[in-house]
# Entry
Amino acid sequence: MCTLEKRGDIFYLTLTGSDEHRLSPTLIASLLAALEEAASQSTRGSVLVTTSAGKFFSNGFDLAWAQSAGSPAGAQQRLHQMVDAFQPVVAALISLPMPTIAAVQGHAAAAGLLLALSHDYVLMRRDRGVLYMSEVDIGLTLPEYFGAVVRAKVSSAAARRDVLLRGRKVRGEEAVAMGIVEGAHDDEDGVAGAGGRLAEELAGRRWDGEVYAEIRKGLYPELCGVLGLATKVIATPRL
# Structure
């Protein structure tokens, strides 16, 4: 499950528990509800920080739940169910009316990495945790919106190749050098502190959240097309 806590202008969305934070239908629904709640309470200066407890940020979809369907056809149907359910979470992050930060405290794999990349800023630990798109290793093709997120958020073609086509497990310093994350920090407190400081800095700008969201969507036209997110013009200059 996850929790949403508001401290001043900053929303903290935390994947709770010490498990792998597998993106089951239940956790996906909980994430979407939390993002909708944050959006409904957004004001000037709001910021979202998403983080986790335990060893994992998120280890992707709940494949054990899919396989428990008892047949290959049933497992495939359950996997498609999770893929379809998770797309609105990505869309909610891309359209959220506030800056977003993923403070990645552990491993982020497959859909878990996509969750992190759907934020504006990604911070991670240099001492623990990897970023890993496992699909090529486990024999799964990428949903269309997965590819669109990676193309939007990872600018280097070589980095995209290594992540998607080599299944490279990327650690903190490598991720910074590849342009995947904003920064790598020494430990759990380092990531949390960096995330908090960045959030306070962004909150201090007191931006209009609706304008911020529209500018963000304008940066990623292909991704927004895949997600079905329309852009709109907001003409309310702050004088």
Summary: The first strand starts at residue 2 and ends at 7. The CA atoms of residues 101 and 118 lie 9 Å apart. The chain has eleven helices and nine strands.
